[in-house]
Amino acid sequence: xxxxxxxxxxxxxxxxxxxxxxxxxxxxxxxxxxxxxxxxxxxxxxxxxxxxxxxxxxxxxxxxxxxxxxxxxxxxxxxxxxxxxxxxxxxxxxxxxxxxxxxxxxxxxxxxxxxxxxxxxxxxxxxxxxxxxxxxxxxxxxxxxxxxxxxxxxxxxxxxxxxxxxxxxxxxxxxxxxxxxxxxxxxxxxxxxxxxxxxxxxxxxxxxxxxxxxxxxxxxxxxxxxxxxxxxxxxxxxxxxxxxxxxxxxxxxxxxxxxxxxxxxxxxxxxxxxxxxxxxxxxxxxxxxxxxxxxxxxxxxxxxxxxxxxxxxxxxxxxxxxxxxxxxxxxxxxxxxxxxxxxxxxxxxxxxxxxxxxxxxxxxxxxxxxxxxxxxxxxxxxxxxxxxxxxxxxxxxxxxxxxxxxxxxxxxxxxxxxxxxxxxxxxxxxxxxxxxxxxxxxxxxxxxxxxxxxxxxxxxxxxxxxxxxxxxxxxxxxxxxxxxxxxxxxxxxxxxxxxxxxxxxxxxxxxxxxxxxxxxxxxxxxxxxxx
Length: 531
Known about the structure:
Distance between the termini: 45 Å
Structural class: alpha/beta
Number of helices: 11
Shape: globular
Helix content: 10-25%
Largest sheet: 8 strands, parallel, barrel
């Protein structure tokens, strides 16, 4: 068995770039004093969307172990000619399940779903939906009628959701890329012409479909759904004129229609007795500028009669956002959205609910851009949950996998395991759900404390070209246990390599180390108590 960390591109001589920090320590260093008193942020978790990878690979239990446990070694099968890899589990606790809008079955009139002509959607991106026939209003009342509802339509993705929960994932979100195809103006869940694509007569039906699916998952399948999000990049999809040719499920909703749907969704969840237990999240806009404008507009946009709040913003217990395409506006948008959330009358929690770096779309991806994004989202926005778009993807994934490959003997080749995987592991394996995030004042340093575990976690990155000499003063803690550290060089040999070579010292419990260029380190300090 080939041990991890190591890939075919790496030298067998591990540890040369992140060995024991140089000594003696010189005074020209960055001093960081994590603040216990000013921190009131509890980390909710790390996660991934399940579509589309789980629609293809949701029957593979070793992938559930790999992504949703913190096992020290998970054997991952490669093709028949390669040795298996032994990888550390990521320990993700957030799984985002996509409710589909596609169906291969015609409705009661014989009408079938429309697909694109110039850019048809591949089958592995067609998320199969459950409400297949709308011919009878009684179908709303009896969601067990197989003439109208097909609850076995998306078994692989549902199976991965179940396995994630069994392995400890405790924040399970249901979201939608598009309503059922028959609810849409052009009968296509793959994008409409400019503007809203959902027909007026289906506003309530779409909200009911979301609520009925949550009810089925909770009451029939035993899936403890914790949140529901009816949209995915709704404003961008209003602006893109794809008209069924966008290559994946999409649907546009302007902010007024979003507010209306959120009101209907709250009413439907309340009717089913789920509103008190399932958080409504919104709106998963494509970028931070859209997220900010939508959030502000949800305060003023009208909602349906009978909505259990006076405006849509008050219905949302969490603001979900993506952070694509901001360019030079990125920093101001980060801060603007954070301020808007903090000043809300009922501030929601804030998640980066989908992100990945488009500049790391090949097999040589190191995760440097990924790490930079995570640091900025946590430090500048104050997000308490962070979700990777797809852990497995032909382009952006931690594992590069040909999802349309149907040969079971060729799961994936060794060269498509990227260093980006272990970069993500520095965050997910050490900063754990329930830990208190401490204020460091440094954009590239994250420190968290788990009172139950009596554990301090540190993740620190150096994206520059010179060594950073660091001094982390943990004077508010009594430390009795050992310190372990892990190191990954973005451009070097170390790949989540573990060392036991330094510990806090002196009256201030100072952790001194030199952080080489293009490197990420994580530390776990055990048996630590506040004083």
